[in-house]
Amino acid sequence: MTTDLPAPTGTPYRIAFVCLGNICRSPMADVILSQLVDDAGLASKVEVSSSGTGTWHLGEPMDPRAAVQLMAEGYDASAHRAKKFDPDWLEQDLVLAMDAKNLADITEGRGVSDRVRMFRSFDPLVDDSEDPADLDVPDPFYGGDEGFVDVIRIVERTSRRILTGLQALDL
């Protein structure tokens, strides 16, 4: 896959993650990429956020299982509160959907662009020949703790690749 990110539209460079309820996958990506960006000294140049396509969990904290797994890995999950995706967010520098259904929901009637993509299109373990349907980040909500650990591993390696792309932009 690629590390090429779209050129910035302004400052800060804005990245938004989108999943279904904004309590598992997208906030995990938000927390992890935010920490990587901060550790790289880019916090004043990159803004990271997340949202969900549904309204079931508005204002709620992250799923406790996601928060526990993140904290076990040294991340701070305490500040997250679920938000609903706003179509105006499509104007951000990069919007990353966690699965194909999320992508379809946010692009309905608008189409996909180089600024709206699947999150795992940046996953270093995915190659260009893979079926786009295989780009979903599995939703751990209905499973056990191991699903949240698996998502953290996917998000960490993919976020590192995104960070490399951000550094290449020379923000």
Word description of this protein:
With 171 residues, the chain is α/β, with parallel strands linked by helices. Helix 1 crosses helix 4 (145-169) and helix 2 (64-72) packs across helix 4 (145-169). It has helices spanning 25-39, 64-72, 100-107, 145-169; strands at residues 13-19, 46-52, 94-97, 116-118. The model has no long low-confidence stretch (mean pLDDT 93). Strands 2-1-3-4 form a four-stranded parallel beta sheet.
Please give the count of helices: 4
What's the helical proportion of residues?
Answer: 25-40%
Average of per-residue pLDDT values:
93
Strand content: 5-15%
Which shape, going by the Cα principal axes? globular
Element-by-element helix/strand order: EHEHEHEH
Our measurement of the CA-to-CA distance between the termini, rounded to an integer number of angstroms, reads: 22 Å
| Count of folded domains | 1
Instruction: Detail the poorly predicted runs.
Output: none
- Number of DSSP strand runs: 4
Please state the CA-atom Rg, rounded to the nearest Å. 15 Å
- Helix/sheet category: alpha/beta
CATH topology: Rossmann fold
Specify the CATH class: Alpha Beta
Q: If strands are numbered along the chain, what order do they take across the biggest sheet?
A: 2-1-3-4
Give short descriptive properties of this protein.
single chain; 171 residues; alpha/beta; four-stranded parallel β-sheet
